[in-house]
């Protein structure tokens, strides 16, 4: 591609998802032309202004016109073990990425920004934090499929085109009926357990969107960037949510979406909480008791990436949470 089009064009896979819909809104607000991939069954919500391409991430015929002529291809379509079996997970995450890259190779495309997961990295030995270099042996089909997809993206960046990979940690924000709804319910419900083992990096969805745009603007081709947030023990995260929403355990029902989307997670905590709490599948359950903390230093230094504290993201998420259960 010779240079950016005016207005710039973005192609977004996973445009109807939690992160993708937020990214589309931001791109539209910033004046981009936005093409979104959606399936016939996808809920497009209130996303107005997106040029929809209906199909599947495994369908090359749909992908070609989606990406051809795009300055940026944000590849976010993905699926976890909480909503599909291992074969489908591999198909969508690994093969889907392969199809997207094929379409990009065939077309005239600027930069591909691939959204993987921090789960392909883990703190090594006694280290407190993981960074991009801490490549971990994948646990389960989700991590394995993302790791394989990362290799495909690296190879594409080496030989065919321009691509960068971002690794968000656990994303918190409105519209996420899984992790966010669970964490909020723990902060406001009297019935939730007071003490949980382990910890994680929690990043606001708006910060991840900033990171995606920064990776497009300033990332180096072939590089990987962790997009993390605050590293918190579960206890600390839950108590800070409780403090932010007024400190009194609200009498709020858990939304059906939270229960529906919870998916298989750390069983020991599930048993205590009588609810699924961790953003892990069954195979990854042992990780739930660890502190999975991440450093976003590279993204900060090279992309100018910044994240805000959990409190900054709670009000918007809480507003959504309360509306969801009415
Ligand atoms: N949420 C997190 O904490 C987190 C953390 C790290 C990385 N990530 C990664 O970030 C990306 C977005 O996550 P998210 O939380 O926004 O997930 P999400 O809400 O489940 O959205 C997934 C998106 O992928 C689409 N999709 C799934 N299978 C598809 C297929 N076969 N063809 C076309 N589209 C398909 C979905 O379409 P439908 O609307 O039709 O279902 C949806 O738009 C994923 O790649 C995920 O692995 C997420």
From TrEMBL:
GO terms of molecular function: aldehyde dehydrogenase (NAD+) activity
Pfam families xrefs: Epimerase
Transmembrane domains' residue ranges: none
The NAD-dependent epimerase/dehydratase domain, residue ranges: 11-228
InterPro entries: Epimerase_deHydtase, NAD(P)-bd_dom_sf, NAD(P)-dependent_oxidoreduct
GO cellular component, one term: cytoplasm
This protein's name: NAD-dependent epimerase/dehydratase family protein
Organism of derivation: Natrinema longum
